[in-house]
Amino acid sequence: MVLEAIVSPKTARQKPWIIAALAFIFVIIGVLAADFLGIYKSIVAITFVSMPAVPFIWRLFDFEEAETEQSVVLGSRTIARHLPVILVMSMFFIGLIAGFLFLFFTLSPPQNTQIFEVQLNELKNVGVVSGQAIFSLDNGRFTEVFEMLFFHNLGVLLIIILFSLLYGAGAVFVFTWNASIIATFIGMYAKTVSS
């Protein structure tokens, strides 16, 4: 794949910001390709964004397995050993969010509705109630909303674990999906506040 050829796992660990930039570029390319195809744009965009990252992430984890560091961070060898990969994955996630957010603000409203249709529906299902609880904590529904959001996110975590065990690319898909949801939420919130 392209990402695998552009950046090696070793380079990614040394310069994780490169991964954020590449994730941003792949969001742009994936969303534009989905828009060009014209069918199921929301899901196709997530798929096209996830596909180039899968081989790279597999290679990153293989590289991580092969190279073990003996340094200690905060008394833990586990954190020290995996900190570079956690940083790379965090930068990948930030790059995805930045790419989706950029497109959310630059696409026309009809394109936004088509590209982010599934994400907007998910936010309507989950976010409307949570928004009420966040801005009025004394309304007595905070605990109910917190439990709903907690169990929703716990379900997402279980799906990621299941996809990781059954099909490694599924975890990347869910990772990308969550980045698109966060970007859509930030975009909707920014538009609401500015109007």
Molecular structure report:
The protein has 195 residues and is an all-alpha fold. The chain contains ten helices and no strands. Helix 3 crosses helix 6, helix 8 crosses helix 10 and helix 9 packs antiparallel against helix 10. The longest helix has 30 residues. The protein is globular, with a radius of gyration of 18 Å. About 3% of the residues have low confidence.
How would you sum up this structure in a few lines?
The chain is mostly helical and 195 residues long.
Count of alpha and pi helical runs = 10
Q: Specify the overall morphology.
A: globular
Distance between the termini: 42 Å
Mean pLDDT across all residues, rounded? 77
Structural class: mainly alpha
> What gyration radius follows from the Cα positions, in whole Å?
18 Å
Taking pLDDT < 50 over at least 5 consecutive residues as the criterion, the unreliable ranges are 133-137
Oligomer classification: single chain
Q: Give the H and E element order.
A: HHHHHHHHHH
The major sheet is characterized as: none
